[in-house]
Amino acid sequence: QTASIHVFPSHRQNEINRHIYSGFTEHMGRCIEGGIYDPNNPNKDLLTPKSLRKDVISTLKPLDIPIFRYPGGNFTATYHWQDGVGPHSQRPTRLNLAWGGQPETNQFGTNEFMGWCRDHMNAEPYLCLNMGTGTLDEALSWIEYCNATGNSYYAKLRREHTGHDRPHNVKYWGLGNEVWGPWQIAQTKDPKSYAETALQWAKAIKLLDPSVKLILCGSDGMQPWDYEVIEATILPATTSDLGVTQGPLIDYVSIHGYTASSNHHKNVFAPLSAEHAILTTTALIDLACASNAIPPGQPRPTIAFDEWNVWDPKRAVGSQGAEEKYTLSDALAVAVWLNVFVRQSDKVGMACLAQSVNVISPLMTTETGVIRQTSWFVYELFCRFVRGHKVDVVVNCECYQGDTSPAWLRDSVKGREMRWLDVCASVDGEGWCVVCVVNAHEGEDIVTAVGGVDGGTEVEVYEVNGESVDVTNMDGEEKVGICEKRWVVQGEYVFPAHSFTMLRFRVSERK
Ligand code: AHR
């Protein structure tokens, strides 16, 4: 088959918010303990004086990941932040009820996370509040502990614990995690009751610190839950009888999504459902703004897709907390996920890859080092090169004609054309135009006319591919990595079967 891709580098659209490359670290399996923090590792050379893994830091750091979410996930629903601060010898060991009742020593808590996230990763922290067994009082005291600058009780306690005056200035706070889920401890079944509580919490939190940004707990973006909580919480700014004005209480609406299939084509196309989730949630936000008469000019919430990845919980069962072994097929699915976030980057203010180390992660630790899984290389390329503005691109190629039964395909994707080439493109301020192309076809190379850039232009090519869609990097060999090449634009480019290709054109001089 032949195809064409036409890029329009001079037609800049919205700016791509780098927050779409954010991460997530949860007290689950070996993500925190054994991943980020490894006090029991006998090889002390691998560790900082605070027992943080140096190899994890040096591998993640060049990606310049903007935000890390913490401490969960499901773990959040029973987390009491005060267990994880203060003298280490006095911290209680609790049972992690979200993840099999494993002991949680609380040796790594708020201040340790801040040290890792801010000082080592140069990233912003995003903390998720306990709306399961936790109280508003507890949430307020955590925010005061992190952000207050005066002489209030928790600000002083923080200074006592950290030994310095600097607040943590945590900007992003989640109003619970998947509170609707039956797996959740202290599940909230009724969206109206969650919305009411979330508004009361938001009102109090923004009185304490009006600068924070609050993330509402949505579902997969397409459920009655999403409709109800969005409709009930996106409200006009108010001024109370006492003259206190409060701006919008909700700044982001969260969506979570995980995809997987043992069938390669289904696996790679499944993330397209996220595109529909983003469009649906955006429409729900618009609807709430209209029906609740949000005045023009009042900032509207955007989307925080704060958990996404390829994950089949059944496949990863038995490992210590979802240690997925990613195949080349999974890496291509991750590339489609990232293409979706770039294509919809005018609507997505944040997206967090779940998770950043060991647990459903592209990066694994062993006792002696790290393994970069297949999907690592795709994530790395996006973080390094896809930035600036999204640009228009028109793709013409054949489409997947296989099974589209709802058993694997969300209704949202059913009926949509799934082109063998899944594409996004960007232009950055340094004059680089980047075109990201997934050839999802398991067996066919696709000969493609690439237009919109001058013939003769020399292009940097980064390809992620492997012998077959099933190969992994987890058996002692890096079978999938980045292959760098050059191509001079002339006629057609052949996108190999089951590959991810990034073409990097220089389109103008640095501005
Ligand atoms: O990321 C793993 C888990 O998936 C999170 O704890 C939870 O929020 C989701 O169900």
TrEMBL record:
The keyword Hydrolase applies. Keywords: Carbohydrate metabolism, Glycosidase, Hydrolase. Pathway: Glycan metabolism; L-arabinan degradation. Residues 306-499 form the Alpha-L-arabinofuranosidase C-terminal domain. Pfam families: Alpha-L-AF_C, ASD1_dom. Its EC number is 3.2.1.55. It catalyses: Hydrolysis of terminal non-reducing alpha-L-arabinofuranoside residues in alpha-L-arabinosides. Alpha-L-arabinofuranosidase involved in the degradation of arabinoxylan, a major component of plant hemicellulose. Acts only on small linear 1,5-alpha-linked L-arabinofuranosyl oligosaccharides. PANTHER family: ALPHA-L-ARABINOFURANOSIDASE C (PTHR43576:SF3), ALPHA-L-ARABINOFURANOSIDASE C-RELATED (PTHR43576). Belongs to the glycosyl hydrolase 51 family. This is non-reducing end alpha-L-arabinofuranosidase. It comes from Knufia obscura.
